[in-house]
Amino acid sequence: MEQGRDRGTRDRVSHRAVDAIVAAVFFVVGAVMIWDNLRLGAGWAPDGPQAGYFPLRIGVIICLCSAFILAQHAISKERPTHAFVKWERLKPVLLVLGPTALFILAIQLAGIYIAAALFIAGFMRFMGRYSWAKTLAVSLGVAAILFWTFEIQFMVPLPKGPLDALFTY
8: Cβ–Cβ under 8 A, 6 or more apart, which residues? Predict the structure, then answer.
């Protein structure tokens, strides 16, 4: 069997699937750009282009390119046999990507300090298998150091979520 070719399709992610997924994600990004820049104003004002004029056009270009790739994907009869990535190689990436996406969401909901403490604790405890004592010490210690460094020393407020009222001084 040639190297780079797989017998089954269940243990791999094909180039076609990755192309389609990335094109769909970029199409959504372009559509959001178009919508948001229409909201801002994307026309030509008496004093020149409005704030969304050029970004709207970039969003249109992104959508057109993505639609072209999706159409090419739908029309193509070619079935590549080589894998983009095997599932056993993709799993560790997803094990980091998932919690990182949740971390970004948690920053919006609970603020960066709580989100950072939970993120660090999750990785230490469940991926690193550290004891609860070490996990709590490090995760809470890092959050406290971040707070001290940014809020007190640099006087740069970071997102604190609904706890903002407690930290206003």
Answer: none
The pLDDT tens digits for 51-104 are 999 999 999 999 999 999 999 988 887 766 678 888 888 889 999 999 999 999
The CA-atom distances, in angstroms, between 16 and each of 7, 29, 89, 150 are 17, 20, 18, 45
pLDDT reported for residue 1: 40
For the chain, the straight-line distance linking the first and the last C-alpha, in angstroms and rounded, comes to 68
Question: How confident is the prediction for the chain on average, in pLDDT?
Answer: 88
Domain containing 48 equals 1-81
Domain boundary at 81, 102, 129, which?
A: 81
Q: Both 76 and 93 in a single domain? A: no
DSSP assignment of 38-103: HHH--SEETTEE-TTHHHHHHHHHHHHHHHHHHHHHHH------BEEEEHHHHHHHHHHHHHHHHH
What's the confidence (pLDDT) of residue 4?
47
